[in-house]
Write a structure and sequence with these properties.
With 428 residues, the protein is of the alpha/beta class. It has one domain. The longest helix has 23 residues. The chain is globular and about 60 Å long. The N and C termini lie far apart (46 Å).
């Protein structure tokens, strides 16, 4: 009897071990279009002009991955950036408390036709004048959490495959005047299928500014990311999740295409890649993740009343005062790196990184696939390369790239160290 009991205990522990090593995935989406007129994000010359309706809806697309004993929520947002600091903290606290999810990537597509997200419930910083925006932030938080919780509840055994391909002419450098101009042509995808082989989700990572619509248009739009996702859903039958890459110095290419035509063309490329991937169940699923906040001196002194006044004139006072609070102790970006199943790497950073950062990271990481998610888990303006800062110009000058020169390289070096540590190539 004793041996029988020990055998049952052994089988039970073995089943727990096997379950802990399984790979699971779940998806869900929620609409996040503001219901009331609010200031729009992305173009300074709009100042505090309120939105005037909807061109196409905005969504939060959630993908939850469970591997081993860890879970990761990846949420693609049709927004200019990820939620502001107060919202981000509340969302993450709820995900941990309600679903046991301690790792999350909340990434904006960087559409310039979404709502301003920096206002706060404080005097002179949003309260009283922009109550509709403050109401929207709570609605946004609820929608994101609901999407992640539903995706988590739908977790089921899954198969996966990742791949990338260079797309010539789909994006171009908008900053440098020197040849050859840096560019990141890599379209990176993660295909996830149900155990049956039926497509479940397609995660798409691409770098190009979604600025195909004019600043004068005060209607909400997901820009080309919305058309891309519609194409994937229609042609592949999978739930699409889009996260922007290192697009700080990149614009869309392909000539004078409108946002729908560009998004559909890019979506067809993603579908073509997905169909060429053969998914498999990982023999031993694993997920390793690390995240830290860093601090860099700011090249802009927003405490200087003359400088602050210039920014307030260029944008609007309530917005700038929140940035004064954010950068009071320097520029403090977040960096996350992870390794899925020992071979698929990802890096998420809270800003507009120039494309060479992602290109060099992939080259140096020596992994089969590396995703780079910009505009994720916060927003700390541009991170140009050192040579781009030396060249100067929009995106590289201190006015919109306040972090000390070299901050981007330091963050990429740290991510690279973590990726090697995850594989046991470097000591922790």
């Amino acid at each position: 009897m004793r041996s029988g009991l020990l055998q049952q205990i052994g089988l039970f522990l073995f089943s727990l071990c096997v379950a802990g090593q399984s790979f699971q995935a779940g998806v869900a989406r929620r609409e996040i279009t503001p219901r009331e007129p609010v200031p729009m994000w992305g173009y300074g010359d709009r100042h505090d002009a309120l939105s005037e309706g909807v061109l196409d809806p905005l969504y939060a697309d959630a993908l939850v991955l469970a591997a081993g004993s860890e879970k990761l929520a990846i949420v693609g947002l049709d927004l200019g950036r990820s939620p502001g600091e107060p919202s981000l903290a509340r969302i993450r606290e709820r995900l941990l408390r309600e679903a046991g999810i301690r790792w999350s990537v909340l990434g904006g597509s960087h559409t310039h036709h979404g709502p301003v997200l920096e206002l706060t419930d404080a005097e002179g910083r949003g309260r009283g004048r922009f109550e509709a925006a403050l109401r929207y932030y709570r609605q946004l938080e609820d929608a994101i959490v609901e999407a992640v919780l539903e995706a988590n509840a739908r977790l089921a055994p899954a198969r996966l495959a990742a791949g990338s391909a260079a797309l010539a002419g789909f994006n171009a450098n908008r900053h440098s005047k020197l040849e050859p101009k840096p560019v990141d042509p890599e379209l990176v995808v993660l295909r996830i299928d149900r155990e049956s082989g039926e497509p479940l989700a397609l995660l798409v990572n691409w770098a190009a500014h979604p600025t195909t619509l004019p600043p004068s248009l005060l209607r909400f739009s997901a820009d080309y990311a919305g058309a891309l996702k519609e194409t994937i859903r229609r042609e592949l039958g999978a739930s699409p999740v889009f996260l922007q890459g290192a697009a700080g110095d990149l614009r869309t290419g392909r000539g004078p295409m409108d946002y729908r035509a560009y998004g559909e063309a890019l979506g067809r490329e993603a579908v073509r890649m997905a169909r060429n991937l053969s998914t498999a169940t990982p023999p031993a699923a694993s997920l390793q993740v690390r995240e830290e906040r860093f601090r860099f001196p700011s090249r802009v002194d927003l405490k200087n009343p003359i400088i602050a006044m210039m920014y307030e004139k260029a944008f609007f006072p309530e917005l700038v005062r929140n940035y004064q609070d954010e950068y009071a102790e320097g520029v403090r970006p977040r960096l996350m790196a992870g390794l899925l199943n020992g071979e698929i790497g990802f890096v998420a950073a809270s800003g507009e990184f120039f494309s060479a950062h992602a290109v060099r990271l992939r080259e140096r990481a020596r992994l089969r696939t590396v995703f780079f998610f910009g505009y994720s888990n916060g927003y700390h303006q541009y991170f140009p390369t050192i040579e781009a800062a030396a060249e100067g110009g929009y995106g590289a000058d201190p006015q919109v790239a306040p972090a000390a020169v070299g901050a981007g390289e330091e963050l990429m070096n740290r991510a690279l160290v973590w990726l090697y540590q995850f594989r046991g190539r470097l000591k922790q």
